[in-house]
Specification:
The complex is a heterodimer.
Chain A: H1 2-11, H2 24-27, E1 29-35, E2 37-38, E3 50-51, H3 57-74, E4 80-87, H4 95-108, E5 111-121, H5 125-128, H6 131-137, E6 141-147, H7 151-156, H8 163-176, E7 179-186, H9 193-205, E8 210-215, H10 223-229, H11 239-255, E9 260-262, E10 265-267, H12 274-280, E11 284-288, E12 293-298, E13 301-307, H13 311-321, E14 325-330, H14 333-344, E15 351-352, H15 353-360, H16 366-374, E16 378-381, E17 384-387, H17 389-393, H18 395-403
Parallel strand pairs in A: 1-4, 1-11, 2-3, 4-5, 5-6, 6-7, 7-8
Antiparallel strand pairs in A: 8-10, 9-10, 12-13, 13-14, 15-17, 16-17
Helix pairs in contact in A: 3-4, 4-6, 9-11, 14-15
Chain B: E1 7-14, H1 20-30, H2 48-53, E2 60-67, E3 73-80, H3 88-95, E4 100-106, H4 113-124, E5 128-134, H5 143-154, E6 162-163, H6 172-182, E7 195-204, E8 208-217, E9 220-221, E10 225-228, E11 234-236, E12 239-243, E13 247-249, E14 252-253, E15 258-262, E16 276-279, E17 298-304, H7 310-322, E18 328-334, E19 338-345, H8 348-361, E20 366-368, E21 372-373, E22 375-379, E23 384-387, E24 399-414, H9 418-427, E25 431-438, E26 441-449, H10 457-464, E27 470-481, E28 483-490, E29 493-494, E30 500-503, H11 504-521, E31 529-535, E32 538-545, H12 558-575, E33 578-581, E34 584-587, H13 588-593
Parallel strand pairs in B: 1-3, 1-4, 4-5, 5-6
Antiparallel strand pairs in B: 2-3, 7-8, 7-16, 8-15, 9-14, 10-11, 10-16, 12-13, 12-15, 17-19, 17-20, 17-21, 18-19, 22-23, 22-24, 24-26, 24-27, 25-26, 28-29, 28-30, 28-31, 31-32, 33-34
Helix pairs in contact in B: 3-4
The chains are: A alpha/beta, B alpha+beta.
The complex binds guanosine-5'-diphosphate (GDP), S-adenosylmethionine, iron/sulfur cluster and magnesium ion.
Residues 14, 16-22, 54, 83, 134-135, 137-138, 165-167 of chain B line the site of guanosine-5'-diphosphate.
Chain lengths: 404, 599
């Protein structure tokens, strides 16, 4: 109970006196570990994921640990609030690999008492078999990529599992972990409002504590994008249906006790993903592994970092230099303000106006904020600026008004 | 100083793409004027824009030293002239400085509209003309057919036409020999007082104003004090040179010779093309007949995207005008666009070229408003005013009637496209004047209102004929018609920059096309935007841009933050190309594109 109360507070970044602490501490500090391999490439996916049959996990573990040590040397005396294994398909990692990485992290930084350690898992039976091993290694939260609850759509999405298999994997996960979330992709080809309402109700009946519900996005460079441009990806919802699908999602989840705390993320109060909140609340995070991004405040300057994306290039760089970092870009006050708005307005709780003004170092764009409030896209209460539901649906346009 | 008998002055006339620039390159190269290693394509097209677009805009000149087969050394002065109708004026005055022309015709294409227009200018200037059939390397070349066509359509004897491939170099020696033996030598009297024609002038960043001259009589030397007979101004010559094509100093220029001088002249506007240059102390008694200055026929507003750039724009326009006397400007204020300039151009290409140069050479972002022709407004009180800007249209109660400029258009087209052309001209309020055939090509002449032509006529012509039609025109005069001002309202606010003059019978069509186009061109906003076209208070067409309902990124985690921030930075750049009207942002491109009609 106590823990929940504290988490809930983190969701609306508590007011902090910046005389004493740096801005990132409002959001906290987290480590993201990227595993870049999958069994096959899904046609909609533009993540840094590769299909490879020869992976020497020992070699990978060594490289992760080198990079972790390197990162730790730059960021001493911080405690880690969250670790996230993302992918690709981290559930292809051997439990020993996960354990080794977590061991490296524990040696490098003190862990917060309530540290959240999440691993993204694909819901196949093989991977379900490894869940206990992850638990033993220290993982305490699992996020499963279920994506759809009917086999026909799963096939269209190029997924390697059936709905039944996914549900079985979910049950296994629930029996092992206190906190299990899963992802669904909606606004799929040919999906009607009624279809989705049915499917989402079914999902909510599984009584998850956390759900990520993403509208299908056609990302450039994917197989779907190629088909889409050729006019071969038919039956995608038009704007009106997409809006209706989104609204229905809000309503159903809200009624089931899982309100949206972020645009696409829903949780029972207290069950929000701490890791993702670090991103949205402007915390610092270290990126480990190919293509991992980070935000690090060092000597008062905040940097955006990115590692080499290509797995082989990353490995080679780590071996040679102890880090696979490719770019490190200092962020201006304007950049930091932009990122705070971009990320923070995704949250139902929005952003703290004083904090935003402090980051920007000058006044906020009052006229634009005023106009957007008039239009019903933004609202202010208790010194916080947040997007309304209508505003969240056009957040890109809202951000253009505010930032461009 | 060269003997008159050993000088030949000539220009090359051709339809665009028939190979004028390539032939000039070959002549420069094969006379050894420029070493092979320094040779680049289209050597005389010196402006970036000229090279990029493959067109010649300003006349350029080069002096070639040629040892002919008879063993004699000749000086050949080539003036390369623009082919495009917008610059016809530039052509006509350069022609007056030379005695002969090479008429270049693409042997695979035949005579085109610009061939005709340009060759008639050469004939008017009294030139000896040598037909040259180019591109005979192409399998589609039909020299016999084209020879016959030159005789039929132009009435020139083409039996001695020189057959060449400017690309491969085939026949180039024959061209050089023809220049020497078939074109006349210039005439002139070395001992008479100096009489030289001011052919052109331009601004050079290092040298200041450079004046190109053709000496008729007498001798001009470095250090001479000269008088411009029209302006009366007196200058001392600092530098005298010939162009090869870079400047090579020369001590003196005698009759028949072409060269350049500098004389501490501040701006190009101080020089008058066509003026007669003579010696201060010993002037000639009769000046050469002058040229009439070029009249701008198309006007549009140029506004800085960023209002803070107004001074920079003023500066740039002034500098550019120094080097382009055919372009006019005056300050303009628009309710929607703020401070800018109303500029006059010789045609649409000229407009585009000037805008490109302002943007590129002076790093400005500009908004171009609807191009407009010059209307004559006859007031009830009997006075007449010129209307350069639809926004200045006076109250109708004072207006008696309006007149608009008309043109005679000459279009040459393969007969399978004739129907499309006739329809296009008919749609544009054209009156057919003439229709003749030469082989399987038709030549049509139309009387058309210029305002129907300035926007997109040429684009339409090219698209309906797949590029096979050619077009040229000349302005013939003014005629009364039922013309009204159409205004455009976006989100209930009038956008003065989009208002235009239209014929009443065409107003609804244009209004409809305009609002439909704007609906496509204005991005959706978070609110709905009505777009209306109106005449006076009466709405004649209406469209609505619906409000955007969804525009959001589903996933945004660590790496996406960077991606998204970069995207926003890019949009900041894009936003510079937008203009705010009340709450609505209109992309700059919309101002030009909204006027392109698909009728
Ligand atoms: N095949 C062939 N192409 C040529 C010849 N002369 C010019 N061209 C090409 O025709 C195009 C237009 O030539 P250009 O000299 O720029 O024409 P201009 O517009 O009259 O100056 C270019 O792509 C040239 O390379 C030729 O003799 N044979
Ligand atoms: C890192 S990804 C994939 C994790 C895991 N490999 C899997 O596929 O289950 C996290 C989530 O993003 C979502 N996602 C990926 N590509 C998407 C797209 N093009 N449109 C919408 N959601 C997408 C999926 O729900 C996916 O589970
Ligand atoms: S969606 Fe997941 S499993 Fe599919 S390719 Fe992307 S990262 Fe791999
Ligand atoms: Mg050319």
């Amino acid at each position: 109970m106590k823990r929940r109360a504290r988490l809930a507070k983190t969701c609306t970044d508590a007011k902090v006196d910046l005389g004493e602490v740096e801005d990132w501490q409002v959001g906290g500090f987290a480590i993201y570990v990227h595993w870049p391999f999958c069994l096959s490439k899904c046609p909609y996916c533009d993540f840094n994921s590769h299909v490879s049959s020869q992976i020497d996990q020992k070699e990978w573990l060594d490289a992760y640990r080198l990079e972790i040590d390197n990162l730790a040397a730059e960021t001493p005396s911080r405690s880690v609030q969250s670790v996230y294994f993302g992918g690709g398909t981290p559930s292809l990692m051997l439990p020993e690999t996960v354990e080794g990485v977590l061991d490296g992290i524990r040696r490098a930084w003190p862990a917060a008492n309530d540290i959240e350690i999440t691993l993204e898992a694909n819901p196949t039976s093989v991977e379900a078999g490894r869940l206990q091993g992850y638990r033993d290694a220290g993982v305490n939260r699992v996020s499963m990529g279920i994506q759809a609850l009917n086999d026909q759509d799963l096939r269209k999405l190029g997924r390697m599992h059936t709905a039944k298999e996914a549900l079985a994997a979910y049950e296994t996960a629930r029996s092992i972990f206190d906190r299990v979330s899963f992802d669904l992709i909606y606004a799929r080809q040919g999906q009607s409002l009624a279809d989705w309402r049915g499917e989402l109700s079914q999902a909510l009946d599984l009584s998850p504590d956390h759900l990520s519900l993403y509208q299908l996005t056609i990302e450039e460079g994917t197989v779907f994008a190629e088909r889409y441009h050729k006019g071969q990806l038919r039956g995608l919802p038009d704007e009106d249906l997409a809006v209706d699908l989104f609204s229905a999602t809000q309503d159903l989840c809200e009624a089931a006790g899982l309100p949206a705390y972020e645009l696409s993320n829903h949780a029972r109060p207290g069950q929000e993903s701490r890791h993702n909140l670090v991103y949205w609340q402007g915390g610092d995070y270290g990126g480990v592994g190919p293509g991992a991004h980070g935000r690090l405040t060092l000597d008062g300057t905040r940097y955006a970092t990115a590692q080499w994306s290509n797995p082989a290039a990353w490995l080679q760089a780590v071996r040679a230099a102890g880090t696979g970092q490719r770019t490190r870009e200092p962020l201006s006050a304007e950049d930091r303000f932009a990122e705070l708005m971009m990320m923070g307005l995704r949250l139902r709780g929005g952003i703290d106006l004083d904090r935003a003004a402090r980051l920007r170092g000058e006044d906020l764009p009052q006229r634009q904020i005023h106009d957007l409030i008039e239009m019903g896209k933004l609202q202010i209460s208790d010194g916080r600026l947040a997007a309304t539901e209508e505003g969240r649906l056009v957040l890109n346009a809202v951000l253009r008004e505010l930032l461009v | 100083m060269t003997q008159l008998s050993h000088i030949r002055n000539f220009s090359i006339v051709a339809h665009i793409d028939h190979g004028k620039s390539t032939l000039a390159d070959r002549l420069i190269q094969s006379t050894g004027t420029v070493a092979d290693r320094d040779m680049k394509a289209q050597l005389l097209d010196s402006m970036d824009i000229e090279r990029e677009r493959g067109i010649t805009i300003k006349a350029n000149t080069v002096r070639l030293d040629y040892k002919a087969k008879d063993g004699q050394h000749y000086v050949l002065n080539l003036i390369d002239t623009p082919g495009h109708v917008d610059f016809a004026y530039e052509v006509s005055r350069s022609m007056r400085a030379v005695e002969g022309s090479l008429l270049v015709v693409d042997a695979s294409q035949g005579v085109e509209a610009q061939t005709l227009a340009n060759v008639y200018q050469a004939i008017d200037a009294g030139h000896e003309i040598v037909p040259v059939l180019n591109k005979i390397d192409l399998p589609a070349a039909e020299p016999d057919r084209v020879r016959a066509q030159i005789e039929d359509v132009i009435g020139l004897d083409a039996s001695d036409a020189v057959l060449i491939s400017a690309k491969s170099g085939l026949g180039i020696p024959d061209v050089l020999e023809a220049i020497v033996h078939r074109l006349p030598a210039p005439k002139g009297d070395r001992n008479a007082p100096l009489k030289a024609m001011l052919v052109d002038s331009w601004y050079d960043a290092y040298l200041g104003v450079v004046v190109m001259i053709r000496v008729m009589d007498g001798v001009i030397r470095k250090g001479d004090r000269i008088r411009m007979m029209q302006t009366g101004a007196i200058y001392g010559i600092d530098k005298l040179a010939v162009l090869k094509p870079q400047m090579v100093d020369i001590a003196e220029l005698g009759p028949g010779e072409i060269g350049v001088l500098t004389a501490s002249i501040k701006q190009v506007r101080d020089t008058r093309v066509g003026d007669t240059i003579t010696h201060e102390k010993k002037p000639c008694d009769q000046p050469l007949p002058g040229f009439k200055p070029a009249q701008p026929v198309v006007f549009c507003g140029l506004f800085p995207v960023d209002a803070n750039d107004f001074e920079a724009l003023r500066d740039a326009i002034e500098k550019l005008a120094l080097n382009d006397a055919s372009f006019s400007y005056e300050m303009e204020t628009s309710a929607a666009l703020g401070f800018g300039f109303r500029c006059g151009f010789l045609g649409l290409l000229h407009l585009e070229v000037v805008r490109d140069r302002l943007e590129r050479e002076y790093d400005l972002d500009l908004i171009t408003t609807a191009p407009s022709v010059v209307y004559h407004i006859y007031m009830r009180d009997g006075s007449m005013m010129e209307l350069h800007n639809p926004a200045d249209m006076p109250d109708l109660t004072h207006v008696d009637h309006l007149e608009e400029p008309r043109i005679k258009a000459t279009i040459m087209v393969p007969d399978e496209y004739l129907g499309d052309i006739l329809k296009l001209c008919q749609d544009r309020r054209g009156i057919q004047l003439n229709l003749t055939y030469a082989g399987n090509r038709a030549m049509v002449e139309y009387d058309l209102p210029l305002n129907e032509v300035v926007f997109d006529f040429y684009d339409r012509l090219k698209s309906v004929t797949k590029g096979y039609a050619s077009f040229d025109y000349q302005i013939t005069g003014y005629r009364e018609d039922d013309l009204v001002k159409m205004s455009v309202l976006v989100n209930d606010e009038p956008v003065d920059a989009l208002s235009m003059m239209v014929h009443r019978a065409r107003a609804e069509l244009r209004g409809r096309a305009m609002v439909e186009k704007l609906k496509e061109l204005i991005p959706r906003h978070m609110f709905k935007i009505p777009i209306q076209a109106a005449i006076g208070g009466r709405v004649i067409a209406r469209e609505t841009i619906s409000a955007m309902r969804k525009d959001v990124t589903a996933k945004c985690y660590g790496g996406d933050a960077t991606r998204k921030r970069k995207l926003l930075d890019k949009q900041k750049e894009g936003k510079k190309r937008m203009r705010q009207f009340g709450k609505v942002e209109i992309p700059q491109q919309a101002f030009i594109n909204a006027l392109k009609m698909d009728s």
